[in-house]
Amino acid sequence: MAAPAREEGISEVIDVREFLSEWSNILEDCDTLESQTEVGDGLIGQQMDISQEMVEELATVCGTSTLACGLEPVHLGNTFNLFPDEVDLVSVKFQKEHVERRSKNPVFNEKVLRKMKYKFQDSMFLRNTKDLSEPVKNPVQRPEVILNVKVYRPFVKKRSLRLMVDHEFMVLGTQCLTALRDAYHCVADYAVTGDFSENLDLPKDVIAKDLFTSGFFYIEGTFYNDMREPLTSRNYSEVITEWAKNAKTGLGPFTSKKMEETTFLDLSLRLGQPYLFLHQGDCEHLVVFSDIRMLRQDDPQDLAEYPVIASKSQKRRQMCVACQIHTARWLIRNSYLAPEDPCFLCEPCLKALHYDKEGNKVGNFQAYLYFDVNAVA
Fold this sequence. Notes:
The longest helix has 20 residues. The chain is of the alpha+beta class. It starts with 13 loop residues before the first strand and ends in an 8-residue tail after the last strand. The strands form three sheets. A nine-stranded mixed sheet has the order 2-11-4-3-10-9-5-6-7.
């Protein structure tokens, strides 16, 4: 069911394919006008009542080329760590020493990040150091539309009601919705089920996303189900659509489509409207489309680079409660030797505390493999 009314910060419904068509025509007219330089310059001269020579002189003196001094770095990403040698300022000297210390000392760098205003977001697109002028093997076909999509962290009611953006992606209109799902890595997909306390060395090759491949996007009254795996994929939305058919619910009607057969051009959406991505049965992520625009020349032109990670959140690793040095590898339940329940331990501390010299289990507890969020891209 679509949103019943427009709220503050939420746009009207936008047909992505219609948006691409309309703006393609507008930009085509603009390109035609720009190509007619002589006519354009003549119109400028007439409007300003000046000669053609004066128009050409103004174009030279006031052109965008005059904004550069010739010493600018080629890649924008390098400006964060570049310090001119000819500048003898104490502030620049201190900043250079600060950046060098952060690059060599991860602990100091983490402390600095925690005090920053935007400590929860790491802008990745600004650090793109690839030369956009280089030829690409598989260029994006124009005209093309780009959508910015924010995927939020899983909603866990018991922890906090605070919602945080996990990743922001730039996707192409011609890409299928499955491209976004495959690009986003949630820690729930890498969970390994089962109790390993009897033998910590048991194989851990099969992860959750290999067993439970189902999932859906809910956008404007339509469920887009991932049905790429015939043997393991389930239609999560079926029970919801059947339940909504009851008039007493006051919801629906809902429709259902396949995620792998739907491109972003096929969508009608609202900017700023929270939608839903559900996978692994009950792992829920809010999905918000924050921007839609045409592909620009300074965007990545290689089709293989999309979806592009525009930004991602800074995550704190789960430390081992025993040593407070290593990242936790195991989650321990019902152990009288552990200081808390559940207890997060690294593997050396787990073996030292819960196993004897021969490697035999001490006590009656359960050990579940823990996958830290920082290990997910």
